[in-house]
Write a structure and sequence with these properties.
By secondary structure, the protein is α/β, with parallel strands linked by helices. The chain is about 35% helix and about 30% strand. Strands 5-6-7-3-8-9 form a 6-stranded mixed sheet, with helices on both faces. The longest helix is centred in the middle third of the chain and has 16 residues. The protein is elongated. Bound molecules: adenosine-5'-triphosphate (ATP).
């Protein structure tokens, strides 16, 4: 396997009884990148992640994690990864610190305790609190600390910011960014498109058990539709404008103001506009969220 690939998934399939959750997932995560894994409920994100760590057995395809097949070397793979599951199982008999120490023993005592304490402080998690007294959000924080505390080479995070308040979400995104700066690779699933847009170097979109797109967030955004609002000095005949390839009328507020949809580059529209008395011209890029919706339509 190429050294530059931290995680390689090829033609991965997985069924639960008659439900085919993964229908041939292909994905490469490069070393040192933050890769955001997006998809609607039930698309197959968690199933993919569980197959990557061999927490469930795949039915077909190949998976290589840091050069190892997780089915052949599950212990070695898990030792080199930090994993935040969607639902972390914690033991009510422990305090937060006791739980972290217990998890650390399972992972051969590689935790950096100064770092663990720093993480806990930054996300406002009290190490002395009994697990049984923690809210759902605070349990998620324990999951964050245990995933990062041994400074793993590869972080696999299933919705790391789920259930956290906005300030803590921001801190977790900062921690993800810092881990990458320190050389780690991060693969994380999310429903939160704006956070993916903010931190991910690349995004993969999964739909019905198949990865339908992998690209940089900016590429996805640039490739899609934009809107352009044009105001003219006086009412104009817009026929010529609307004949420009890729340009459609969204709204005509009056003869002197148009809202257009533009597919692809702006070049054609701008050249046509050169023949018009333009007072003002504004364009808007779609958010990644709008791009995402074009993949799923409104019914998924
Ligand atoms: P979410 O965003 O809701 O967490 P997801 O993208 O992580 O969704 P998965 O949890 O991987 O999706 O689910 C993929 C499909 O597999 C869904 O149809 C789901 O109902 C099904 N599925 C997942 N786990 C099981 C299971 N243990 N038994 C049966 N079906 C399952």
């Amino acid at each position: 396997m190429e050294v530059s690939i931290a995680l390689k998934i090829t033609a991965l399939t997985k069924s639960y009884g008659s439900t085919q959750a993964l229908r041939g997932v292909d994905l490469d995560v490069r070393r040192g990148e933050i890769f955001g894994f997006l998809g609607p409920n039930g698309a197959g994100k968690t199933t993919t992640i569980r197959c990557v760590l061999d927490l469930i057995h795949r039915n077909g395809g190949t998976v290589s994690v840091l050069g190892m097949d997780p089915q052949e070397n599950p212990v070695a793979v898990r030792a080199r990864c930090g994993y935040l599951p969607g639902e972390l199982r914690l033991d009510d008999a422990f305090t937060v610190e006791g739980q972290l120490r217990y998890l650390n023993r399972l992972r051969h005592n590689h935790a950096d305790w100064n770092y663990a304490r720093e993480l806990a402080r930054r996300i406002d998690l009290d190490l002395k609190t009994p697990i049984k007294n923690l809210s759902k959000g605070n349990k998620q924080k324990v999951g964050v600390v245990q995933a990062f505390m041994h400074r793993p080479e590869l972080l696999i995070l299933d919705e790391p910011t789920a259930g956290l308040d906005p300030l803590v979400q921001r801190e977790v995104l900062r921690i993800i960014g810092e881990a990458r700066k320190a050389g780690a690779t991060v693969f994380f699933s999310s429903h939160n498109i704006s956070e993916v847009q903010e931190v991910a170097d690349r995004v993969g979109i999964i739909r019905n058990g198949v990865v339908v797109e992998v690209a940089e967030p900016s590429t996805l955004i640039n490739r899609s539709l934009r809107t352009a609002r044009v105001r003219f000095r006086r009412p104009v005949d817009s026929q010529a404008l609307l004949a420009t390839p890729g340009v459609k009328l969204l709204a005509q507020e009056d003869g002197a103001s148009l809202l257009l949809q533009v597919e692809g580059e702006m070049d054609g529209l701008i050249k046509t506009l050169a023949g018009f008395p333009v007072l003002d011209f504004e364009t808007e890029r779609p958010t990644l969220e709008e791009v995402f919706l074009t993949y799923y339509g409104s019914n998924q």
